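Page 47, continued from p. 46.
Same chain as before, 300 aa.
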Amino acid sequence: MDHTVQLVQTFDSFPLRAIALYRALLKQSSVVALQPEERQAVQNVIRNKFKGGYLLTSERLLKNAFTAGYQALDRLDAAAVGTEGALGYLRELLSKIPLRLQQPVQNHRSRNNKKGAPERPLHTGRSVLDRPLPKEKLAGKRVVPRLIGVNGVPFLRFKKPQPRNLSLLISHRIKQREDRYERQEEARDMLEIAKGEDQWDRILWNKFKVGSAPERKFIPWGSQWDHPWRRQIWVLRRLRDEEKVKNAILAAKMHDIVVQEQKLADEEEKERALQEAGHSAASLKSATGTNTSEPSPLGG
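Result:
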C-alpha cells in the first residue's frame, strides 16, 4: 500500500499526522522479521528522527519529512508481509544509517544533568544555617554575610571572590529551574497535540467504529492521550510552588542569621575597642611609672 497519498496539504493537520505516522512506524517495525537488536535499532532510528524534527516549522521541510516517513512505512509493510527482497533492503539501509541514530534517544533531563549537576558533593562541611558560630570557633574577625538572591534563590555570601562550590550550586539551581520550565512548555505543546488526537479518535469511533469508544471510563487527568501531559504540567507547577515556599523559608532563616551575625559583630567590636583602650591605658601607666622612678639629673 502506498502511504504517500495520505500526506495532507494543510499545515494545521501536521501534528495529528505526525503522531499517527510515529505510531504506525513503531507498530510496523515491531512485526518485521528482524533480529531483536536490529528491531531495536530501527525503532531507535524512528524515535531519533522524530525527535530531531520536533521543532520543524517550515511547511516544505515538514512535507519532505512526511514523504520520507511514509516511504519508510511502505518499506516496513513490504518487509512485514514477506515481499521478496524487502527485508534485505531494510537491513542494507540500516547498515548505512549513522550509529548515533541507532542509539536510544537521549533524555533531555539527563543531558541537562550532565552539564549542570555537580559530579561530587558541593559542600561537605558545616551547614551555613548552623551560624552564627561562637567566638571561640572563629579563625579571625567575624565576617557578617550578605543575603543575596539569584533568580529567586537565596544565598549567604561571606567573601569575594565567590567560592567555586557556591557558583556551581547557583548554576545547578538555575539550570534545574530552566529545565522544568522547558519541560512545562513542551508538555503544553504536546497537550494541544493530544487534544487533537483525542478528537481524531472520537471521529473514527463515531463515524466508522474504529478503535475504542472514547471516555468509557473516568480518568482523573483526562482522556488516554492528554492524561500524561496534564499530569506533567500539574507536577511541574506543584514543584515550582513548593520551591517558592522553600526559598521563602530559607531566605527568612538566612535573614535571621545576618541579623544575629551583625549583632555579635557589633558586640565583639566593642569588646575589642575596650580591650585596646585598656591596653593603651596600661602601657601609658607603665611608661609614666618608669619615668618617675628614674633619678633626677640635678642630683639631691
